[in-house]
Every structure is written in structure tokens, then in C-alpha cells.
Automatic annotation (TrEMBL):
Keyword Glycosyltransferase in annotation: yes
All copies of domain Glycosyltransferase 2-like, residue ranges: 6-176
Gene Ontology BP term (one): glycolipid biosynthetic process
Protein name: Dolichyl-phosphate beta-D-mannosyltransferase
Keyword Oxidoreductase: no
Domain of life: Bacteria
Pfam families in alphabetical order: Glycos_transf_2
UniProt cross-references to PANTHER family, sorted A to Z: DOLICHOL-PHOSPHATE MANNOSYLTRANSFERASE SUBUNIT 1 (PTHR43398)
Keywords from the UniProt entry: Glycosyltransferase, Transferase
Organism: Nonlabens arenilitoris
GO cellular component, one term: membrane
Length: 242
């Protein structure tokens, strides 16, 4: 997995951050990690900076002034990675809901020709562990809703465990990505689809966090529901910036 970087946004992840870094670095000897921390009050950034003493050439951190949203954290990370000529750029959560051992599956899909590989919970049934039924229905229903509105043939449209070829990211106008919450994941996939990128879904098992707190909120859900509809209408009118 050479010339690959894993971007991990963080906000109050002190219970997970050292464990996730240990896992990635022990599994992959040549993968780099970029932490984008939104000024976590719990000291997440301090833990990362301490780890940099051991992994100075593989571990990087970008500290932002405050909590600005998942989407803007990834856009910040994408721009950082593209300036440094990485070939493969991953998105992954810090809380082990995404299994670091599955990174190679996404990498392999891109090596075999995909522009965007998605770690999918729903491409083969429902592969989610430790979520209440209400959360599963919300997530699965959201993906079905997005498929219906956008007509994308993607089963897990809200997935946040992905690998982009840098060549695809360079085709986006990253300054025109509008969503800041989880709808950011939908927007990126929709625009990749409009760019006729080759998108492949790789089945993975999603496990709910056992440490720390979820960042899901009502505002994030509202952005996804109404934002997707507005995005689709804009694309039909030829007014969507890609």
C-alpha cells in the first residue's frame, strides 16, 4: 500500500486515538496517517503529537481552531494529501467502526481499476454490529432514499470508509463541496458518479464504537434528507458545481 495516506478526523477521541494508530501502523509498514483534529478539549491532539516521536515520518497532524464538521475536515485532509503527491487517499473513523484490517480491501479495489472504493455495509445484506434496530433502519433507509433520489447504483451511499484515487480527487473542485456533516459522504459519491468515475463497493462489517460518544445529531440528519434533494435538483438544472 505504497503512497497511501489514511485521513482520520478527530474530536474528543482520546479513548480511541492511540489504539487506532497502533493498529494501522502495526498492520501496514508503509502507510501514512493524517489526523485532522478540531481542537479536541480532551487532549486528543496531544496524544497524537506524542506518537509523532515514534512515527515522525509516517504520522502527521493538522490542528484546526474548532469543531467545523466532518466534511470540512476531510476536504482539509484531501488538499493536504494532494499537495504531497499521494496516490491513494483513505477516509476512516477513529473509533474502530471501520476495521483497519479492511484497508487493504479498498486499496486492492483501486489497484484493480476503481477510482473510488467504498467499504459497504449494505452491498451484501446488512453487515452492522452493535447498532440498535432503530439506527440500522435509519441508516439503511437513508441509503435507499439517496439511491431513489439520485439514481446512483450504490448500496451504501452514506459510507465513510472509502479509498479515493488521487487522480479522481483532482477532478473535483474541492472548494465547491457544500455539505459539512455526514451528507458530505453522499455529495462526494454523487459527484464522483456524475464524473463517471468507476465506483466499486467492497463488503465490510461495521461495528459500533465501544469507547467515546457518537457525533450524530438532528441537524446532520436534516442536512442529509433535504440537502440530497436540493443537490439532485441542482444537477438536473445544470447548476451543480463539481
Amino acid at each position: 500500500m505504497k503512497k497511501s495516506i489514511v485521513i482520520i478526523p478527530t474530536y474528543n477521541e482520546k479513548e480511541n486515538i492511540s489504539l487506532i494508530m497502533d493498529s494501522v501502523f502495526s498492520l501496514y509498514q508503509d502507510v501514512h496517517v493524517l489526523i485532522v483534529d478540531d481542537n479536541s478539549p480532551d487532549g486528543t491532539a496531544l496524544i497524537v503529537e506524542d506518537y509523532q516521536k515514534r512515527f515522525s515520518n509516517r504520522l502527521f497532524i493538522e490542528k484546526r481552531a474548532g469543531k467545523q464538521g466532518l466534511g470540512t475536515a476531510y476536504i482539509h485532509g484531501f488538499k493536504w494529501a494532494l499537495m504531497r503527491e499521494y496516490d491513494y487517499v483513505f477516509e476512516m473513523d477513529a473509533d474502530f467502526s471501520h476495521n483497519p484490517a479492511d484497508l487493504h480491501k479498498l486499496y486492492s479495489a483501486c489497484e484493480l481499476g476503481a477510482d473510488l472504493a467504498i467499504g459497504s455495509r449494505y452491498v451484501k445484506g446488512v453487515n452492522v454490529v452493535n447498532w440498535p434496530m432503530s439506527r440500522i433502519l435509519l441508516s439503511y433507509g437513508a441509503s435507499r432514499y439517496v439511491r431513489w433520489i439520485t439514481r446512483m447504483q450504490i448500496h451504501d451511499t452514506t459510507a465513510g470508509f472509502v479509498c479515493y484515487k488521487a487522480s479522481l480527487l483532482r477532478r473535483f473542485n474541492l472548494n465547491k463541496i457544500k455539505f459539512v456533516g455526514y451528507a458530505f459522504q453522499i455529495e462526494m459519491k454523487f459527484k464522483a458518479w456524475l464524473l463517471k468515475a468507476k465506483i466499486v463497493e467492497v463488503p465490510v462489517i461495521f461495528t459500533d464504537r465501544s469507547r467515546g460518544n457518537s457525533k450524530m445529531s438532528g441537524g446532520i440528519i436534516s442536512e442529509a434528507v433535504f440537502g440530497v434533494l436540493k443537490m439532485k435538483i441542482s444537477s438536473l438544472l445544470g447548476k451543480l458545481d463539481i
